Structure formats: structure tokens, C-alpha cells
Amino acid sequence: MGSVDVFEARTAPASGGGSARRRRPPAALRPMIINYTGFHTEFTAPRRRLELPTGCVTLVFTFSDGLWVSRTEDLGTARLRPAAQAMISGPRTVPAIGVHAGVVHGLEVNMTPQGCHRLFGIPMWHFEDAHVDLADVLGPQGRFLTERLQSLPTWTERFALLDGVFGARLDDNPSPASEVSGALSGLWANTRSLSRVSAATGWSARTLRSRFREHVGLSPKAVARVFRLQHALRMLAGGTAAAHVAAACGYHDQAHLSREVKSMTGLPPSRFVLLRGGLAPGSALDRMPGRVSSVMLSG
């Protein structure tokens, strides 16, 4: 199975209670799956989380009712709907909102887009515009997977079940295209040079867009926007002044940075910084290491 990394966080009793159990998958699955997180929280008041674009895929299993989700460009007009027992949210350029009444129990799996494509074997554009029910991509196995997970007594056993389910699918579909993997790495490392990254694949712009839609779910330009946003949010969360962030991340000016942050997160930079409260990227609030994935809107 290989070594695993475990993270556990507990909230302050004065504001309610909760815990999260986080673990990386076995080595064979790590190119596809970033981590598993089991969560069980009990608060006395509803809580609203803003989920930011990260370029990754999140699969959520819900073991209790009372969780509502929305995907929107305007936080003021978000229309919430009850979460399915298992749902997948693909890469996106707009925020999502999750709301629960105080008690929420479930498990999430964070994946790379190419990992999701390989494990489920369907084009990633299926996940672009809405949450997708797991039964639609795994059939009967997906339909009963939530119940199987919920019936197990420990997070260790639940994570092991997912290791087995996903590990058994490794041979069902081919490995990701190296050109797409290289382009993604290049875009993450250099948010200013989309044309250079595209040229390195040896593909035409049309072919690159088609492959990205299939393997990632977003166009190369949209992926570059998300990665640049992530770099900007990391710097803003770390206390860097907005003018310096704009220059370092390749925005035309501070106004351009502000428009992009507001468009993609629903928040102006100053409000984002206030709500993050100084938390570093990859904190207990975030879904994965090195990225800024979440902001608590209330609680």
C-alpha cells in the first residue's frame, strides 16, 4: 500500500465541534488522486463556505442530509439545491457555495482532472457546467458506494474501500496524454506564457483546445486563468499588497486583478483577504496542499 500522510484538525469547542481526517492514497493512485478527507462537524448555527476555482476535481459523498450547494458567478443570487449522495464537481472558473445547517457528515476525494478522466473514462467536459451524480459515471457500483462507505465504522476502512475501488479502475483506461500533462505543468509554473506552453506540445491550437476539453474540462486559456488566480490568491492570503500581486502574476494593472478576482471568486481582493483571516494556502480550511480553495462566509 505504501506510506500514507494523515492530517487531523478539530475546531474550538466554544464555536461548536468538528473534525476532519485526511489521507493521501497509495502511490499508484497519487498521480490521479490528491487526497481523501473524511469530515464530521457539529455547529449550533448554519455555515456557508465559498469554494474557489482550483483547477481540480472534487467528489463528495454525503452521509447526512442538510447540505446544499450552488455554482454561481453572483453570490447574491446563488440558488442552492440539496446535495446528492455522491456528486462530482469538475474544474471551473466561477465559485461555488456550500451551506449546511450545522451538522454535516461525509467524505470528499480531490482529484486531478486527468486522474478523473482516467478513473471514470468519460470526457471531462461532462463536468464543466454542473455537479454530476456519481451513479451516472460508475453505474450500479456508484449508486451504492455511498451506502457502503457510510456503513463502515472508521475512516481508515472507508479510505481503504476507495483505494480498492479506484485501484481496480487503473487498467480500464489509458494513461493521460503526456502533452496535456506537460502543458498543465507549464501553465502552473508560468502563468504568463500560454503561447509558449501551447507551442511545446507540437499541436495546433485547435487540437490543444480539443484535448484540454476532453482531458481537463476547460480550455487552455481558462486553465491559465485559474492557475493565475491561484497564484494571486496565495500572495494575497500571504499579505502581499494587491499592486505587487498584479505585477507578479501578469495582470495588466491592479484594476485588472480586482476584476478577475471578483469575476472568479465573487469577492473583491480586499474582502477575500479579510475573510481568509491570514490563513496560509493549504490550511485546514483548504481542500488540498498549496492551493487556496475555500473561504468561510459565515459561521
By DSSP (H or I, 4+ residues per run), the number of helices equals: 11
CATH superfamily of the largest domain: Jelly Rolls
How would you sum up the major sheet? Answer: 7 strands, antiparallel
Helix and strand string, N-terminal first?
EEEEEEEEEEHEHHHHHHHHHHE
Cα end-to-end separation: 39 Å
Strand percent estimate: 15-25%
| Oligomer classification | single chain
Mean pLDDT, all residues: 85
Strands of the widest sheet, in order across it, are: 1-2-3-10-5-8-11
Structural class: alpha+beta
Any overview of this molecule?
The protein is α+β, with helices and mostly antiparallel strands. It has two domains: 6-167, Sandwich (Jelly Rolls); 178-278, Arc Repressor Mutant, subunit A, CATH 1.10.10.60. The chain has helices spanning 113-120, 135-138, 140-151, 155-167, 178-189, 194-201, 205-215, 220-237, 242-249, 254-265, 269-276, and strands spanning 6-10, 17-23, 33-42, 47-51, 57-62, 67-71, 81-82, 86-89, 96-100, 103-111, 132-133, 294-298. The protein is globular and about 55 Å long.
Outline the secondary-structure elements.
Blueprint: E1 6-10, E2 17-23, E3 33-42, E4 47-51, E5 57-62, E6 67-71, E7 81-82, E8 86-89, E9 96-100, E10 103-111, H1 113-120, E11 132-133, H2 135-138, H3 140-151, H4 155-167, H5 178-189, H6 194-201, H7 205-215, H8 220-237, H9 242-249, H10 254-265, H11 269-276, E12 294-298
Antiparallel strand pairs: 1-2, 2-3, 3-10, 4-9, 4-12, 5-8, 5-10, 6-7, 6-9, 8-11
Helix pairs in contact: 5-6, 5-8, 8-9, 8-10, 9-10
